[in-house]
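Protocol step 4 of 5: obtain the predicted structure for the target chain.
Materials: sequence only (see below). No template structures provided, no constraints applied. The aim of this step is simply to have a reference model before the mutagenesis design in step 5. Sequence pasted as it appears in the construct record:
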Amino acid sequence: MAKYKVLVVDDDEDILFIMTKRLKNAGHKVFVAKNGVEAIDEGKKHSPDIIIMDISMPEMDGIATIMKMKTIENLRDIPVIVCTSVRAEDDQVVAQQLGVADYIRKDQLSELPDKIGRVLGG
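Step 4 output (structure tokens):
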């Protein structure tokens, strides 16, 4: 049985592959979306335990997606870890203002399973 259901949202195929592989190896069930619109659809369909969200994406970026999810009853309380390649402190500040559970840079993906465990208390 999977530890957690994780929705990974990123428009970069390579990053999606790496995160999916790491999370599946850690025992999680993984769903993917390539932009914010897909993320909302996948979130409604699968009710993940946690969402890993990129900031910079086409159609609907991570910030807009998180804001939209906060208005949807069955998505608003799902913890989000923001994942971005940008080292800008501005993104981290905005993410914290949106109430995300944690923040990780793409060059720190090896830490992702541990971060999920800390956020979800497992």
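Step 4 remarks: The chain has one domain: 7-117. Residues 83 and 108 are 9 Å apart (CA to CA).
Proceed to step 5.
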